[in-house]
Every structure is written in structure tokens, then in C-alpha cells.
């Protein structure tokens, strides 16, 4: 039988691209393998992944995509879009099980590699005697926080939003409870339970693949490797293989790549002098928050690159469709739009607008 590895990403373009880059890295070192990527239906409309999948299928024939069937999602009143994602992936477990059985008829599956939302999938891998690994793209620092979550959960009966203290997490500097990620603020919400279960599941996996490298985050990596973030049991081995960098659209299509204006500008700046702000393809801020960020950046006196996206609408708390070009004159405080003489340039990328201000 042929040898294969199965990858299972969360159904959003950012997660899919990360998994594809991991697949390419695996194939670089093990070209005889076949990579199978399972695509679950999206719980909300965050843009079609079909063009990207078609390009990868053409350029990398060793990667095969499998679409899982649609499932019916129950209604939810949760304000967190992540709740829908967790629920969709949980309901897809029977489809995942059937897909793995189907692939295993003609391939010897060496591993199932999932991202952090796919916590319910580990039980399927264990039942089929397939080693289950997690692919963690947020870096070792947040992984340390994530693994230590169960320990913090057990030390108090209060929610993070009701605490006013500093969290002492191995491998990290003290973190104020007020800086806790929004989905983790209230321990009584379903999303908190989902993330806590995901942390527990990750500890039970065969290993954790992290998009980082040791010299970048030595303190956090050492704390995780030494077992300090999982004091009550063994920590799975971690594999640092970053940085994984997705190619541009021109590179993916085989065209000649022009150097973006922002990179030409960046090359002219002193080393280590530019702050980069990007909050992901689903990250959006209110106009008030954008104004606070802009004022903070101005007061810092630092050069920066800032990915600016339109604020959320009344219907959606996140960017669920392709975004139009933001009107910076309206979004930024007076005197800080592109009309001022501070050499501010707006640069169009595939899905985001890069604002260069220095």
C-alpha cells in the first residue's frame, strides 16, 4: 500500500493555507508520501476556498483534497463565532471516520494532523489506531498559555473577567487577567468549555507541531519541553518547524513576482525599527478601537505596517465575506487619513489593505 498522511484543518482560508504549507514541507522531506487534506464545510461565509484549492491541486499533485458532507448546525445564541466552528467539527466526526476508513483502503495512513479547533477528531484517530498530532500555528508563547489553561482553571472558581491579578504562566512574562483572550473571559460560556476541552485533548495527542523555531521563543519552548505547562501529566513531544510562509498569488500561479511596495519601503528602514500589526483574516475592530490603535501608534513614534480592515457590521461580528477597501478618511481620527502629509500610503493585497505610516 502507498504511504499517506492526512491533514484536517479548520474550514477557513487562513487555516487551510497553513495546512497546505505544512503539507508542502512534509513532501519536501518525504516526496514518496501522498498528502490527503479533508475539507469540512464552512459554518459561515468567509469566502470561497475553491480557487485556492484548484491552484494547489494543479501545482502539487501529491496533495489530494476530500470534501466532507454538509451537516446541519443547531441554532446558537453565542456571540463567539468559534462556537460554530467547534460544533461543526464535532458533528463532522462520523464523516471524518468514514473518510479515514475510505483512505485507509488504499493507503497506509501514518498520521492524522489536525489544527487546534479539531479537538473532537482525536478520538476518531485513536479508535482507528492512527497517531493524532496537532498543528499549532500561533507560536510557542500562546501554546504555553493554552496548555497551562487547565491548571489555571483548577486554581479558581472565578472567571478571568472577575479576577484582577497577574497570571504566572511558565515560559511567559506575567499576564494581566484583563488581557485574557475574549473567548476565555467567562468560564460559564460554551466557548470556554470548548477551548478547555481542546487544551486537554492536545495534551493527549502523539505530538504538537508548532510554527516557530527555538531561537525565536527559547523560554516558552523550554518551559513546554520541560513539562512545566502540564504539571499533572506528561507533555507530548513538540516539533518546531517554522517559519512556514505562504507564497503570494503570483508565486502560486507561476507568474513573475513583483516586490510589493510595502516590502521595498521596509527594506529601507533600520533593522528592528518597524512594528507590524495584523489580526488575521477574521479580525475586525470597531471605529473606536481603530482610533485607539491609530493614536497609540502615533504616540509610540515608531514606523509601522498596519493591516486595516472595515469595522464589523450590525449583522456580523467578524469578516464573513470579502471586504471592500476601507475608507481611511472615515475610519481614522481627523488628520490621520491618507490625505495628510505624513507619507501614508494604502497598499492593496489579496484580501487586506496594508497601511504604511511613518
Automatic annotation (TrEMBL):
Transmembrane portions of the chain: 133-151
Record key words, sorted: Glycosyltransferase, Membrane, Transferase, Transmembrane, Transmembrane helix
Secretion signal span: none
CDD domains (UniProt xref): GT1_Gtf-like
One of the record's GO molecular function terms: UDP-glucosyltransferase activity
Superkingdom of source: Eukaryota
Record family assignment: Belongs to the UDP-glycosyltransferase family.
Protein name, entry field: UDP-glycosyltransferases domain-containing protein
